[in-house]
Design goal:
The structure is a homodimer.
Chain A: E1 8-13, E2 16-21, H1 28-34, E3 41-47, H2 50-64, E4 68-74, H3 83-96, E5 104-108, H4 110-122, E6 129-133, H5 136-142, E7 147-152, E8 155-162, E9 167-169, H6 180-197, H7 199-213, H8 217-237, H9 252-262, H10 269-287, H11 293-301, H12 314-323, E10 334-339, E11 342-346, H13 351-361
Parallel strand pairs in A: 2-9, 3-4, 3-5, 5-6, 6-9
Antiparallel strand pairs in A: 1-2, 7-8, 10-11
Helix pairs in contact in A: 3-4, 5-6, 5-8, 6-7, 6-8, 6-10, 7-8, 9-10, 9-12, 10-11, 10-13
Chain lengths: 366, 366
C-alpha cells in the first residue's frame, strides 16, 4: 500500500516550505487561507481547453470564500509560452490593479503553469503563486519545484525564473478529461521518477501497467502521489539546479534532441522522454553491465508513442544533443542509472555508446 | 575620517554574500575571477552615453584577461527600460550562444543596471550579474540590493525580479563625466541614506556641502562609500523588502507623486526625492516635535532642483500618492524619522499633516 492521504511538503530551507495537496478544486480557497494568503483580488490564468471545464468551479469556490477572482484565458498549446502572451498577462494584471499580495492561480497544464508562473515571478518583482495543475505531467512534475518560463525562437524555456509556489493543489478529478496522448506523456515523467529514485515504485508500475494505461484511479493515484513526492524531495535538496536536481533530466538529453530534430509537436515531450529513457538505459548498461536493461526496457515499451524514431537521422540527433542548453562549458552530460532507483550525472561516456543507444531506442539493437 | 579602502560586503545569508568594490574598471577581470566567475564569453550591456566613454577600457581589460566580451548598446534614457529593449537583449544573448555561467555586465547608470539586471535574472533562469555603476545614483543605491526590472505603461518598475549581483564594481573616475543634474539626483539618494541611518554622515554632509556640490573627489568619495555601505547593510537585513528595507523609501511616497503628476522626466528621480524628503521631514516633525526640522531642511534646500513644485496642484499630488505601488492593502504608508539617522515606517498620519507637508516642501509654510 502506498500512502496517499497526507499532503506532500516541499522543504527548501528552515522557514521555506510549501504543501502539495491532492484535493478537489473546491477546497482551494481554504488551502489558500491555510497558506497565509490574504483574501482580496486574485488572478486566475487558464487556457481555452481547461478553463471551460474547471474555471467556473474554482471561481464559485473563491467567490463563496470572499475572494474577488478575475479570469484570463490564453490559447491552449506550447506556442502560448511566448513573450506576447506574457505581455498580455502583464497588461491585464497591471491595468486591473494588483498589489504585492495578489495571488496568481495557474489553472491548467505545464504551459499555463510555466507562463502564469513566470508572470507571477516578475509582476511587482514577485506575486504569490498557486499552482493548480490539471494534467498528469504538471501534477507529477512541472507544477512542483518553481521552474517557470517561456520559450524563445532559439529554444524552449530559455527565458524564465525560479519562483516557488505558495501551494500546489492537484485535483485528481481533472485528469479524467485529459486526452490520451497527454496521459501517456505524463506517464513517462512519472515512470522517470520511479527509475531515478524509487525501485519500489518501479515494481509497482511494472505490476500494474495495464490498469495504469486504462487510467484506473485506484491504481494511478498512488503512482501520481509517489511520483510527485519524488520530485518534491529532489527539488528540496537542490532548489536552483546546482547539482542533484539534474537527475530529473533522465532521458532528457536524448529526448530534447528528438523534439528538436522532429520539430516541436511531432512527438509530445513525454513521448520523447520515453524514447530518450530507452536510450539512456542502454547507455547506463554500458557503464553498469549488471543493469537489468531488458526488464526496464520492456516496461518503457508499454508506454504508447506516436511517431517513429527511426525516421530521424542519427547524425542529426547527435548534433542536436550538443545544442541542448544542458551543454555546460561544451561538455555534454548524461543522467544514467547505477541501478533501478539510483541515478547520477556523468560526462564520461563514449560517443560510440551514445550512437548505439540511439540504435537501441529505435529497436535496431538488442 | 571615513574609512574607504576596503570593499563593502553585502551579506544576505550564511553562504550568500557579494562585494562592492570602488576600483578602476581595468580591475574588473581580476575581481570577476576572485568572485568565482568562469572565464569565457560575457555580455556587456551599456548605453550610448556611457559606452563610448568607458566600454573600450572595460573590453580591453577583459580581452587581456582571456575573456570573450560582446558589447550591446541601448539608447540612454528611462524609455529604454521597456519590454521591447529587453527582448532585444534576449535575442542578442540567445542567438550569440550563452550558457548558465555566462556573466552579464551592466555598465551604466540605473537604467542599464535595471534592464541588464532583469535580463540576467531571466535568461536561462538566471545568469551571473556584474554591476558596474557609472552614475552616482547607481553607485550609492540602484546597483546594490538586487532590484531589477522594467517599466510598464501603468507605472515604473512594475515588472522585475530580485537578482543579486555576483559583484559590484563602482569606478569613482566615471563620475567625472556625469552631467550636473545627474550628480544632483544621486546626491539626494546619498543624503537620504544619511538621514535614515547615519547621523554622523549627515553631519559630514552638512559640514562639506559646498565641496560636495563642487564634486571634490576627496570629499565626495567618503560620502559615496558610506552611503553605499548603508544601502548594503539595509538590504542585507531584508533582501526581499519584507520590512526594514522600506526605510529606503524615505521621501519616496511624496517623490513618486511628484514624478507622476509632473510627468516623468520633468523632475529627475533624485530631485523629486529631495523635495519629497522635505515633505517627509515636515511629516516626521508632526509626529516627533523635537526633530530639528529647520536644520535638516536647510541642508536639503542646498541640493539644486530644477522645476517648480508650486506648479503642481496639491489635490493631484494627494491623489497620486494613493496610486503608488507601495499602497499595500489600501493603506498609504510613510517613512518618517524619529530623529536624524533613525527611520521607520508608519501608516498612522493625519491627512491634514500630509497636506501641510506638501505646503512646507513648496516653501509656503515655515
Amino acid at each position: 500500500m502506498i500512502e496517499v492521504s497526507t499532503p506532500i511538503t516541499v522543504t527548501l530551507g528552515p522557514h521555506r516550505q510549501y504543501p502539495i495537496h491532492f484535493r478537489p478544486l473546491g477546497e482551494v480557497p481554504s488551502l489558500m487561507a491555510a497558506a497565509g494568503l490574504r483574501r482580496g483580488r486574485c488572478l486566475i490564468v487558464t487556457d481555452d481547453h481547461v478553463g471551460p471545464l474547471y474555471a467556473d468551479r474554482l471561481e464559485q469556490a473563491l467567490l463563496g470564500a470572499g475572494w474577488s477572482p478575475r479570469r484570463y484565458t490564453v490559447p491552449a498549446g506550447e506556442s502560448t509560452k511566448s513573450l506576447p502572451h506574457l505581455q498580455k498577462i502583464y497588461d491585464v494584471a497591471l491595468s486591473w490593479g494588483i498589489d504585492r499580495r495578489t495571488p496568481v492561480l495557474a489553472l491548467g497544464g505545464g504551459v499555463v503553469g510555466d507562463l502564469a508562473g513566470f508572470a507571477a515571478a516578475t509582476l511587482l518583482r514577485g506575486l504569490p503563486l498557486v499552482q493548480l495543475p490539471t494534467s498528469l505531467i504538471a501534477q507529477v512534475d512541472s507544477a512542483i519545484g518553481g521552474k517557470t518560463g517561456i520559450n524563445h525562437v532559439v529554444g524552449k524555456n530559455l527565458i524564465g525564473a525560479f519562483h516557488q509556489p505558495a501551494l500546489v493543489c492537484a485535483d485528481p478529478e481533472t485528469l479524467a478529461t485529459l486526452p490520451p496522448r497527454e496521459w501517456t506523456s505524463g506517464l513517462a515523467e512519472a515512470v522517470k521518477h520511479a527509475f531515478i529514485a524509487d525501485a519500489d515504485l518501479l515494481a509497482y508500475v511494472e505490476q500494474h501497467m495495464p490498469a495504469i494505461l486504462e487510467r484506473d484511479p485506484s491504481v494511478t493515484h498512488p503512482l501520481i502521489y509517489r511520483a510527485a513526492a519524488i520530485k518534491a524531495a529532489v527539488v528540496g535538496e537542490d532548489e536552483r539546479e546546482a547539482g542533484r536536481r539534474a537527475i530529473l533530466n533522465f532521458g532528457h538529453t536524448f529526448g530534447h534532441a528528438i523534439e528538436r530534430v522532429a520539430g516541436y509537436g511531432v512527438f509530445t515531450h513525454g513521448e520523447a522522454v520515453a524514447l530518450g529513457m530507452r536510450a539512456a538505459l542502454y547507455l547506463s548498461r554500458c557503464l553498469h553491465p549488471d543493469l537489468p536493461l531488458e526488464r526496464a526496457d520492456r516496461l518503457l515499451r508499454q508506454i504508447p508513442v506516436q511517431g517513429r524514431l527511426a525516421d530521424l537521422p542519427i547524425p542529426s540527433l547527435m548534433q542536436a544533443m550538443h545544442a541542448d542548453k544542458k551543454v555546460d562549458g561544451r561538455t555534454l552530460r548524461f543522467v544514467v542509472l547505477r541501478r533501478p532507483g539510483e541515478a547520477y550525472v556523468t560526462a564520461d561516456v563514449h560517443r560510440d555508446d551514445v550512437e548505439a543507444a540511439w540504435l537501441f531506442a529505435r529497436g535496431e539493437l538488442d
